[in-house]
Amino acid sequence: MFLIHIHVAVYNIVGTGRTPIPFNQVSPICTIASGFYTTFSLYWFLIVYALCPPVLMLIFGSLTLSNIHKHRRQIRPNLSEINNRKREKISRQMLIMLIVQCTFITICTIPLALQRIYGSNTSSQQKSITQKTLDQLFLTIAVSLGLVGHSLTFYIFTLSGAMFRDEVKKLIMKIPGCRRIFTATGTQVKTNRIPPVPLERRNV
């Protein structure tokens, strides 16, 4: 993995420049070498940072789930139909969680890669203050999405997988005092449920 990024140390140049407003101070900065490497770095960032991770996650995750499912059938071929349905449901939930995570990461990382390509292709153009402001807004949104894509995995799993929610609930209930809260909440929900209408009343 280190060899993939070794060109960054070779073709990046340490220089001086001004930090963004409001600091506006001269400080050392790293700049990319001009020429062919500028174009190469942009598309390398798009492929390695935005596209490869979710694609590899989806491929190897699917192969892992398929391998686990195959070995289970070889080890215990005579499981009951209920157990088979339960295992298929778990595998389906894990696959859904994997697909949702890969899709979310792709959506969050591609805008930053596209923004870098756009910024490099339009860097020599004369832009108005409005266009510069819009470009800065796009950059801020793209960077924010890139950070969000790698920090919300827990919430993605919680929203997309019932199995993950159940495991989180079991983990929380092991904390002293939390079991009592969950039990009281569940009892209150059952108490507040509207009782079903008897069949005799429905026919009236």
From TrEMBL:
The keyword Transmembrane applies. The keyword RNA-binding does not apply. It is found in: Membrane. InterPro entries: GPCR_Rhodpsn, GPCR_Rhodpsn_7TM. Gene3D superfamilies: Rhodopsin 7-helix transmembrane proteins. Its main location: membrane. One of its GO terms (molecular function) is G protein-coupled receptor activity. This is G-protein coupled receptors family 1 profile domain-containing protein.
